[in-house]
Every structure is written in C-alpha cells, then in structure tokens.
Amino acid sequence: xxxxxxxxxxxxxxxxxxxxxALMVGIHGVTEFKHDEKVYxxxxxxxxMIIQLSQKQVAQAAIYPEVIRALKDKRATKMIIDGSMSSRxxxxxxxxxxxxxxxxxxxxxxxxxxxxxxxxxxxxAVERQVITVEDRSVRxxxxxxxxxxxxxxxxxxxxxxxxxxxxxxxxxSPNYNELTFLDRIGGERCPAHQVTK
Length: 197
Ligand SMILES: [Zn+2]
Prior knowledge:
With 197 residues, this protein is α/β, with parallel strands linked by helices. 43% of the residues lie in helices and 14% in strands. It folds into 3 domains: 3-36, no CATH class; 39-122, CATH 3.30.1330.30; 136-195, no CATH class.
C-alpha cells in the first residue's frame, strides 16, 4: 500500500461509526479473541476439546478413567499436558498415552493462564458442552465408596475392597492392586478395609 492509499484508508477508518468499527473488529479480531481463549487451554482451541483435567486432578495419584475413555474416542488425536507441573505428576499420563498409541505433547508457556493440567483434543471441532471432569473423590463418595478406599490409590488392598471397587466402578480398578497370598503372609494389611465405615 503506498502512502496516499494508506492515509486514505486511515481517514476512511476515522469516518466510520463506532458500531461499524466494532463490527469490523468482530470480523478481523477473531484471531486475537481465539488467542485469549487459547491461553486458558494450553494453546488449543476450546471447540476441539474432548476432556480437560485441572492441575489439581493431574496431581492426584489416580489416573482418571475419564481420560482413558477420552483417548479411546475416535476423534481424539492427542494429549496435551501442562509442562509447568512436576514430572512425578505427569509421568503416569505420558505412559498412558504411549500405551494407548496416542501422541502427547508436554507444553509450557509463561503466557498460559488458568489451571488446566491436561487435555485430550481432536484435530477438528468437537463442540462438547462439558469438558471438565468431576473430582474423583466427590464422585466415588457419592457412589458410596469410603474415603479410606478412595485414598488407597496405588496401594495393595484386600479382596473384599477390590470387589467393592469392581462393584462401584470397575473403571477405577487399574488404580488399585490386590494383596497377594504372599503379601498377607508377610503381614501386609489392607489400608482401606481396616478403616471402612
Ligand atoms: Zn480391604
């Protein structure tokens, strides 16, 4: 654009009314708006999301079964993990993605805002209304699981407790191990069963 045309364009802009300006920003400012949205979702578009975990949820010892379900979704193309989180929290999800043959990206950006810890996304718009996940302790408590059992994630539990998990939510069973015969002989006790209410 030469100087004259540029000044003409500027003066033309100056003659436009506020409503017209707002409309033009509405059309041309979409990119900017999307950028603002993306900083809350680890650099991704919200419409492409299948599921979102908060940093707090990622930091919990259990793997959310909802993430496994999302990775099984045919539309799911990859997992994005917030790189500002400790590797001891995100390692289990990196392993999970690898196991399920889905690529993952650990992404850090000082511009990121909010508390998104992990996303499973699609390459195209999914437009899910609800992408957040209910906290597992809240959900399992509602389903009737004792706090002791909810918190015994990753520990070895007795057969009775394991059966309770299978009854309440079988998808939670990978988060637990069952005490073996040898464990019991060795004196190991179920941390959940002892304190069940
Ligand atoms: Zn038990």
